[in-house]
Amino acid sequence: MTSNSPSIGRLAVRNTVWLTILSYAAQFIAFGATIILTRFLGPKVFGLLAIGLFWSSLLSLRSKLGLTQASIRQPELNGELLGTYYVLDLSVTGLSLILGVGLAVIFSQTIYGSEPTVGLIIVVMLIVESLPALVNPLGLALERELQLSRLTLVYLVSTIISYALAIILALVGAGLWSLLGMNIANAIITLVGTYVVCRWRLPQVFHLHWRFSRPMARRLLKQGVPMGLANMGTTNIVNQYDNFLIGTFVNPTMLGFYDRAYRLSQWPNVLLTQVLSRVGFITFARVQNDLPRLTHAMRLSLWVITTLGVPIALMLAFGASEVVEILYGPAWFVSSFFLRFLAVYTLFSPFISLAGSLAYALGNIRMTVWITGAQVITILSVATFLTLAFGAVGTVLGVGVTVAIGFVISTLYIFRRLPLSARATFGAPLLAVSIASAVTLFVMSQSGWHELTPLIRLIIIGCTSSGLYLISVVVLDPQEMLARVRYVTRTFRGTPTA
Questions:
Q1: CB atoms near residue 448 (< 10 Å)
Q2: For labelling, which of 221, 259, 328, 368 has a CA lying 20 to 30 Å from the CA of 64?
Q3: Got the DSSP string for 212-262?
Q4: In a domain? residue 91
Q5: Is 122 contained in some domain?
Q6: CB 70 within 8 A of CB 220
Q7: d(Cα 121, Cα 132) in Å, to the nearest integer?
Q8: Residue 152: which domain range?
Q9: Does a structural domain hold residue 214?
Q10: Is 210 inside any structural domain?
Q11: What is the DSSP track for 387-409?
Q12: Of 74-78, 280-284, 407-411, where does mean pLDDT reach its minimum?
């Protein structure tokens, strides 16, 4: 199975557009449902789930092997690749379950003896994370053929159904099982949806002769393990170690406040990083030997981040108190403190993700390890020390230092590896951020500001931060904005571009 390379640009743009639209829809539904859930479930419930998710994700060995990324890099999708991938994936999934159940029992009697529910959560979430292994080769085939919009549609459907189930369970007083049931339903629906979509879009996959190959297995492990370990550092340590620190050394209730703030802050990250990293990695890998096209793909990705991600982050940072009060209610006010910081940090995450995708697509495994390793060392040392010294506030500060280091290393790599101008990329956005921030702070400092309702304040903040930022970017560099919009529009429609 091969793809028509001249259509890569159009496929990448179309997938980016549709993934963004569908991801926005799914996130709107998820956040809407979460607002309802926070009215019935206290912060401790969310905190306990966050601790369990940290351990289940850490103990899941599937992602540590990097099999999916290694398989995408293979020149051809055939039965040998699918069969080998399937055997390796199922084997490591079984090993993860055995290891995870054993450690969950130990944790319930030792470090989480006062909260034995954590052990149950770990086991349930390990089972949930193992279910996709049953159809992972089909998902791999769909990703390789850039059928990402269909997979995201499955994600949207599963989000709607699983969150509806969670709300019903919360209404009848199921408590923690509202969230666990939601995750179980989501995994099952995704499993079925992936199978159906592959039957519909790539029926030829089912006619291939799937077989296990030792040489292919060695190749996948050799290429995948370094990336898998780097992903482990990012996913399990850089992105979740803060949950462990607060949940273990502070308390689950404080983690619940932090976790809700973190979820809100991830709007730019979820809506852009996940979209760009999925489309970007596949696109970078397929044009890795064509420097002009590779550079153009990166330039477009950076433009999407600065155009769509920054406005959301600005509104969340300046309107943290208003957002939390409107969405969660006064009882969750503590979350607004965390949100103000975390929203700023999410401005940097998409750049780190892009650099990792570029490095791995080009086979520069050392750089992916370096980017992740620097962040892992920082958060393990700095964040741990600051948490023990200052509690949850120290955790937030440690996360900020970690993200800053990752951003510096990542941007240096991107601009040294590709003929791109940092000044042209960041000049107008930085000036626009300065203008929007200054005006927003001035407006918020006016007398009578807090006499306005939270909704009115948030609308004003949205206009002065996000709105003024976008206007400033267009005014500062109108030709760049017009050129990018025209390119995306023409490519999406399939119109030839110059």
A1: 6
A2: 259
A3: --HHHHHHHHHHHHHHHHHHHIIIIIITTHHHHHHHHHT-HHHHHHHHHHH
A4: yes
A5: yes
A6: yes
A7: 18
A8: 1-238
A9: yes
A10: yes
A11: HHHHTHHHHHHHHHHHHHHHHHH
A12: 280-284
